[in-house]
């Protein structure tokens, strides 16, 4: 049943991260042809932004080492489907541009500890590394998304001060990023914290139109946090088909918000997404079979048990 | 990290349903001494309302056939912990009163189909059955909660009109119920629907102070719906320790909202509950061992993996 609520947007753009953020965090390496079929099925289900892969060095992310083989298989999707790719540095940018990428993303950290562990750099050094990447991308009219991880809590530093996140977020925008994706990488955020960060960004001139939210369901909070962000005017929400990327039974659970759970809420609220939930669910059931484990998405489970 | 949000209550009373609604829907029948220890541990973790058992005929709910043996084991909890019990009819009321129950609950349906299937009566006939129960309870100064199931969707009837729910809700209050618990029994509701129902009740003079909400996580919506209810002024929320009562792997999943997931959100919002989350999580981990299956609560999984 569709019952709108006051003060929410009419339409939300879902930034689908399952093929990149999801598969990057799965133990199994998925064959290139399966990835290509996955992305084709996601697009056929109505998702218009499907993050496709990463040009991080294969040593760090062997699951996505086939980026050069994968992207050419997606050319038939045409311009209606945006296929951003993650690019860590200028070498990655070269590889992405050589394949005709028109949207890239850089991956920053709001905390020093995660920057050191994930990027082997300070936050300032990582921003310096992104600077020529973003500059050259903009020269080529390539759209740039700036991921900002650990925006709420950090496993080593604990709660992350809002002012610290705002500072790094503004630095990413100052580099030339077209949009930000604010990540609750360990899933600890609650709705007041989300609103406080969005308010602080707004006070610094960073409006909701340049912000995407990226919540993890590690503590079950992702949809409540999404509702809080929607109430604040955010219209771009990251999610992962079937909840890919966080095996709920493993200690390493990252717990991406499942796209199906998000779509159930958005459609229930009368918010347009363009997504065909049945087709998306069927895609996630198929992908779960490829991975040999059930989807952690509650909506996928509920709908597929009814089939 | 605690970050309050505007417009939310300072304190929420959690109505813990794990020992009754949870265990009633588990396949395994739990020994009486385990139930007693469970309820003692829930109370020790700070829960002040713990629904203890049901006086439904054992033929219908064999899992709770030991109500007469269980309640005397809880006498040492004293008046600080409310121990409501479910009572279907006058025979059940007699049994509950004989054991000194001071709080009871009746279980109604907003839809005719579920009333027919669950109560073998029309909605009107079920209200007539409750009438002497509530009347006699009130004479004995017993607090009466009225459960109203299928308030949003019904597996046979589909979406349930708000006006229909309001009509039955008012009838339960007219019988003398002190509070209502509005149930999303199949977990399909989304936040706009929640707010629409609460608004419609408010227009009929039923304020949030007489309403509890009872959400199921079948589609992952329970916490977002809870946030919407809190924003509407509701301060009583039903939840089940560890998410008991809905095995997420079974077709019959009911998917009660896990108390731990709720507490994580409430405490993150700076809302007092009186609950010690670590003690509650330890209780749910222990109960999961008794049942031989992992808790479906994401917070229980996240916190217990860190231990």
UniProtKB/TrEMBL annotation, chains A, B:
The keyword Protease does not apply. It is an enzyme of class 4 (lyase). It comes from the Bacteria. It holds the Pfam family HMGL-like. CDD domains: DRE_TIM_HMGL (cd07938). Its EC number is 4.1.3.4. InterPro entries: Aldolase_TIM, HMGL, PYR_CT. Gene3D superfamilies: Aldolase class I. Residues 12-281 form the Pyruvate carboxyltransferase domain. GO terms for molecular function: hydroxymethylglutaryl-CoA lyase activity. Keywords: Lyase, Metal-binding. SUPFAM superfamilies: Aldolase. Belongs to the HMG-CoA lyase family. NCBIfam families: PRK05692.1 (NF004283). This is Hydroxymethylglutaryl-CoA lyase. It comes from Streptomyces bambusae.
């Amino acid at each position: 049943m569709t019952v709108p609520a006051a003060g929410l947007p009419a339409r939300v753009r879902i930034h689908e991260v399952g093929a990149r953020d999801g598969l990057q965090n799965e133990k199994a390496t998925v064959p290139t042809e399966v990835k290509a079929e996955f992305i084709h099925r996601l697009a056929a289900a109505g998702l218009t932004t499907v993050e496709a892969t990463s040009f991080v060095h294969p040593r760090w992310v062997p699951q996505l080492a086939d980026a050069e083989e994968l992207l050419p298989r997606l050319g038939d999707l045409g311009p209606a489907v945006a296929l951003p790719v993650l690019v860590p540095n200028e070498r990655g940018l070269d590889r992405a541009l050589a394949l005709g990428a028109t949207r890239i993303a850089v991956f920053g950290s709001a905390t020093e500890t995660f920057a050191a562990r994930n990027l082997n750099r300070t936050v300032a050094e990582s921003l310096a590394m992104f600077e020529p990447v973003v500059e050259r991308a903009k020269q080529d009219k390539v759209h740039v998304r700036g991921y900002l991880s650990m925006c709420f809590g950090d496993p080593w530093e604990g709660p992350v001060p809002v002012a610290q996140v705002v500072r790094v977020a503004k630095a990413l925008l100052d580099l030339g990023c077209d949009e930000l994706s604010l990540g609750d990488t360990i899933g600890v955020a609650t709705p007041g914290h989300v609103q406080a960060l969005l308010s602080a960004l707004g006070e610094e001139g960073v409006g909701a139109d340049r912000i995407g939210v990226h919540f993890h369901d590690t503590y079950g909070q992702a949809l409540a946090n999404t509702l809080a962000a929607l109430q604040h005017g955010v219209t771009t929400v990251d999610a992962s088909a079937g909840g890919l990327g966080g095996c709920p039974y493993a200690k390493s659970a990252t717990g991406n918000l499942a796209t199906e759970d998000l779509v159930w809420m958005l459609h229930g609220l009368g918010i347009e997404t363009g997504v065909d939930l049945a087709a998306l669910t069927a895609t996630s059931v198929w992908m779960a079979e490829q991975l040999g484990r059930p989807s952690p998405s509650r909506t996928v489970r509920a709908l597929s048990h009814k089939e």
